[in-house]
Design brief:
Distance between the termini of chain A: 51 Å
Radius of gyration of chain A: 20 Å
Oligomer: homodimer
Order of helices and strands of chain A: HHHHHHHHHH
Number of helices of chain A: 10
Number of strands of chain A: 0
Shape of chain A: globular
Structural class of chain A: mainly alpha
Largest interface: A-B, 58 and 58 residues
Helix content of chain A: 55-70%
Chain lengths: ~230, ~230
DNA sequence: TTTATCCGAGAGCACCGCTCTCAATTGTTC
DNA sequence: GAACAATTGAGAGCGGTGCTCTCGGATAAA
């Protein structure tokens, strides 16, 4: 049950986020202006502060919105592949991340680019949506591991790392061994590194005529790291 | 031969870059203000425009400065390891990138974070210093390959990618095969992905008690991708 | 119907990037 | 040494920003 007042407020908030996303696309994170959003909302600049405490709070809203959009895209892509095809699921995840990043570069930049200085994302709002991709990746690997689709060698590990990993395993109810956790974190960061390079244009003058082909050529490398087959 | 006037101008420019770097550290790229730099320079705000055309040009100066600092750090680290130890050289490179990024997070963010919106780095000034790290990496791998320290399987490659790679090989005078180029680009992006995650704090709540150990644990993975031994 | 809450408008503060004009300084040339 | 030109700093000013404050009207709750 919500009063009409709450309804109206909620709708205005949604409209602010929508306008903010558009401005993000057009002018980037640094160019996001509360005054401009207020103008597009058809309201005087000071009125926007009735809904958003400050610029950072609008950034947080857009951050959560972006994490959820990426999470939805990745989940949908993974769900489209059979569970007994872990390689296919992993590739679906990787491609979904890349495609979403290329489709929404400004939003992607807000999520995975340099942090906005002086702005610290409030953990209690952002960690849950922000961990959806790695969570999905771990799910895929955990399931693959159970089905004997992971083949990794053994290597002695730094004891402090092993302790961290034990904790993570306990919290998430996982059974994968340390070596797979190492590989998962490596592939996670590597995947976003590759997408970063492409979205942010860091491949530089070495522009590849077919970036998608380069990405595809990298997938077997990621799978080798994971021992996924 | 340079006139005293040119000397003075050059010194002022250097001072501006120094002040700019400090401001970058303190307030980040988005908070970099020409007026504030002018104040620190002990000059009225409009006078700064005698030296720097606009804010973007100062960003370019800092960008080039940063690329060169990183390149110097990496080169020095690699030179400290014997050439017949390609694994050691690769690790020196990787660790140098990580350490420099952690030591200069704001500068690192300017180089490898989300691009400043509306600002396009002028290629003719930035590509040369901006490619020093990948160039050094390729040098290490090329030399290792010549010495039979690279063992990679064969895989059929997308023909357009193969064409790109041929061109790169010709331009740089390289002899490594396609598979090693793929692996080099993968490791390049993966390395910066890992450093991004750590510098930008994207590992999130999954804070590792010893990030350096995690990084070290990833090094063998990179080397496996490269077939480096 | 009264009361309390909410919300938009407007003025205002300090800051920003950037431009313009003017005066002082400096180095060059006759 | 004097006239000249180039360089540089100061100052005012424009439109923009984030953000705060106060005020008055609309609206829901009592």
């Amino acid at each position: 049950m919500q009063t009409p007042r709450e309804r109206a407020r909620q709708q205005t908030m949604a409209e602010i986020v929508t306008i903010g996303r558009r401005h993000l696309e057009l002018h980037g994170a640094a160019g996001l202006s509360l005054r401009a959003v207020a103008r597009d909302l058809g309201v005087v600049s000071s009125a926007i502060y009735r809904y958003v405490k400050n610029r950072d709070e609008l950034l947080t809203l857009l951050l959560v919105d972006g994490y959820d959009a990426l999470g939805d895209a990745v989940d949908a892509a993974v769900q489209g592949v059979a569970e007994d095809d872990p390689v296919g699921r992993f590739r679906a995840l990787a491609r979904a991340v890349r495609q979403w990043g290329l489709a929404e570069p400004a939003c992607y930049g807000l999520l995975f680019g340099s942090p906005v200085p002086g702005y610290e994302a409030p953990a209690e709002q952002t960690t849950a949506p922000g961990t959806r991709v790695i969570f999905q990746l771990v799910q895929i690997l955990e399931s693959a591991d159970h089905n004997g689709r992971i083949a990794l060698g053994d290597r002695t590990l730094d004891p402090r790392l092993a302790a961290d990993f034990s904790k993570i395993r306990d919290e998430k109810g996982l059974t994968m061994d340390d070596q797979l956790v190492v590989a998962a974190v490596l592939v996670w960061s590597a995947l976003f590194g590759a997408v970063n390079f492409e979205v942010f244009g860091h491949y530089g003058q070495t522009t590849f005529s077919d970036p998608a082909a380069l990405f595809e050529a990298h997938l077997p490398g990621y799978e080798a790291i994971l021992g996924l087959r």
